[in-house]
Write a structure and sequence with these properties.
rod-shaped, disordered C terminus
């Protein structure tokens, strides 16, 4: 058993480097895909809220719905859900907007677990490559004792490359993971503010009056 494990270890850190290259490519793909998603989720919240309140104050529900549906963002999607169900009870509207909010959060959170996993585990993968490289270096020394310390040092220097590559893969993954998470928190905070705005109108019966006039 020990001999089998030793033979596997003697492969050195090269297979680990290939794995780290794959993880690096995967991380880049996820970052680009998420960057596009978050870039499309830009809204001028102050202007959007002002126009929404103006339409509701003027009892222009259709204009408010068109405003919400014209913006392809998480904020507007939740608002549209609330406006399209304005004639229902307040508790129903709250549940529907809450469900829409959860759906949007899941959309924004998609694939971020990949970045988190790579960021937290890539250094350990690199360390594994280093350990395997050191094992191989000492094994080479055992069969080439004339080389002395130079054989070991060369092998260890080569093995440490895996640790360095692991860190190079992990650091950008962690940075972008934290960035996207912060953007997600900001977006969901905007969603919460807009939900409260709509609920204030429902509490004031303004949306109900709009529905009666529209009918």
């Amino acid at each position: 058993m020990v001999d089998k494990l030793l033979n596997m270890a003697l492969l050195g850190g090269e297979p680990i480097l290939y794995l780290l290259v794959f993880l690096s490519i995967l991380s880049i793909v996820v970052v680009l895909e998420r960057a596009i998603t978050y870039a499309r989720n830009k809204v001028d919240l102050a202007a959007f809220t002002t126009r929404l309140i103006d339409f509701l104050n003027q009892q222009k529900l259709d204009d408010a719905i068109r405003l919400a549906e014209s913006n392809k963002t998480a904020e507007s999607a939740v608002v549209a859900e609330g406006l399209n169900n304005f004639d229902k009870r307040k508790s129903v509207v709250i549940e529907l907007m809450s469900a829409a909010s959860m759906a949007q959060q899941q959309r924004l959170d998609k694939r971020l677990n990949i970045l988190g996993t790579i960021g937290s585990n890539a250094p350990f993968v690199g360390l594994l490559g280093t350990v395997l490289g050191i094992i191989r270096a000492f094994n080479d020394l055992a069969f080439n004792s004339e080389g002395g310390a130079s054989v070991v040092m060369a092998g260890i220097a080569e093995a440490l490359v895996a640790t360095a590559v692991g860190l190079l893969v992990a650091i950008p993954a962690v940075v972008f993971f934290n960035y996207f998470k912060n953007r997600q928190k900001q977006i969901m905070s905007n969603v919460s503010r807009l939900e409260n705005t709509l609920l204030a109108f429902i509490a004031d019966r303004k949306l109900t009056s709009i529905g009666k006039k529209a009918a």
